[in-house]
Amino acid sequence: MPWKDTSPMNERIKFLACYLSGESTMTDLCNAFGISRKTGYKWIERYNADGPGGLVDRSRARHHHPNVVEPVIKDLVLQARKRRPSWGPRKLKVVLERRHPEARFPATSTIGRILKAEGLIGRKKRKHRSAPYGDQLGQYAEPNAIWCADFKGHFPVAGKRCNPLTMTDGYSRKILQCTALKSSTTNPVIDVFERTFREFGLPESIRTDNGPPFSSLAPGGLSRLAVWWIKLGITPERIAPGRPDQNGRHERMHRSLKQDTATPPKRSFRAQQAAFDRFVSDFNQVRPHEALNMEVPDQHYQASPRSYPSRVPEVEYPAHLVVTKAYPNGVISHVGTQWYISGCLGNECIGLEPTTTEAWKVYFGPVLLGLVDPRNERDRGSRSFGTLVRQDGTLVGDRRRKRRRH
Q1: From residue 346, how far is each of 216, 326, 329, 335, 368 by CA, in Å?
Q2: Which range is least confidently modeled, 31-35, 90-94, 281-285?
């Protein structure tokens, strides 16, 4: 039988003592102690090399692990993370393999363990998310099908509010514009959009939230900016109130924008804009995107074939609609009554479509604004202005009429 279970160390000492006495052959000695000749020679070699200390059990772990990360590779990972503190293991691995094709980098999970061991990755907070909007992803069919636009929340720069206006192509995720504005009013926003349209052409639609200057409380949610888009052949798209996840691709970009450029903000608008420009270049040309199979947005984007016109055209309507031009105050005259539509539609062409009743549907471009019904005005008696009924059933008031009553 092999070494006694009570004390293998004592058995090895007895074995070495008998061997050193020279009274037995190696074969007889190993048979007497119940071990193989290979095991016997192993303990003799260890004793000759290390003395009695060589008889102690040694660790059976490998001297060289095939998957151990070399210090040089580990240093490259940590240096890359230092340059890109907001990047995760997947993006770091892709970029490192591009820059060092001769090196063999470990798996993404191993890179994550390296970063975690160095204290560079903390525990992620659990986020409670609502179900995604069903139509969001299916509509991004090709480049320029949908652009996404929004203001990244304002923050102070040099004692003033910085309002970053951003635009992305929904299909490729390419950042088309990131401009630091001191105001979110309509005129500077139109200037930025015009500059972007001249560079990249016109999209089919633009998706935004419901805040100004993208939308207003006017019928159809139209604003002066939205009216301009419609005249250019662009459909304004607005997410549901309180549902930023419906513009999730753009919101995710905003999170990276804030991490890399505004935490903390720069000391001047020029420095802040320079930081935005570096981020845009890096995001479009260097930073791998998981939804793009770790490729960059520039590889998936091409400019729109619809160029920005030298003159903004008027809205065109189908032949069966009656077209009338609004007065500068947003009022139209139709079937013997004046109807207040919206101040942002002053001097614009409005389309009216007859229904099976005497009511008329009111359109600006493809946007249904509401109904005008001459029967209601006859029932109420002679008045200077009729009332447009929105799609939700509410009325559009008229300030001029209210002042006359007083």
Answers
A1: 15, 6, 5, 19, 17
A2: 31-35
Write a three-state SS string for 216-252.
CCCHHHCCHHHHHHHHCCCEEEECCCCCHHHHHHHHH
- Return the pLDDT at 406: 37
pLDDT at 395: 58
Distances (CA, A) of 162 to 154, 177, 181: 5, 15, 6
Pairing of strands 349-354, 175-181: unpaired
Return the number of other C-beta atoms located less than 10 Å from residue 327's C-beta: 15
Q: pTM for the complete prediction?
A: 0.67
Rounded (10°) angle between helices 108-117 and 71-83: 80
Is the Cβ–Cβ distance between 204 and 146 less than 8 Å? yes
How far does Cα 229 stand from its chain's mean position? Answer: 24
The string over 199-235, giving b where at least 16 C-beta atoms fall within 10 Å of a residue's C-beta and e elsewhere, is ebbbbbbbbbbeebbbbbebbbbbbbbbbbbbbbbbb
CATH code of 140-299, in short, is 3.30.420.10
In terms of DSSP bridges, do strands 385-387 and 337-340 run parallel, antiparallel, or are they unpaired? parallel
Q: Which residue has the higher pLDDT, 7 or 193?
A: 193
Mean pLDDT of 172-188: 94
CA 325 distance to own-chain centroid: 42
pLDDT of 241 reads 80
Indicate the pLDDT class of residue 135, thresholds 50, 70 and 90. very low
- pLDDT of 394 strictly over 90: no
Distance of alpha carbon 215 from alpha carbon 223, whole angstroms: 5
Q: How far is CA 323 from the centre of its chain?
A: 42
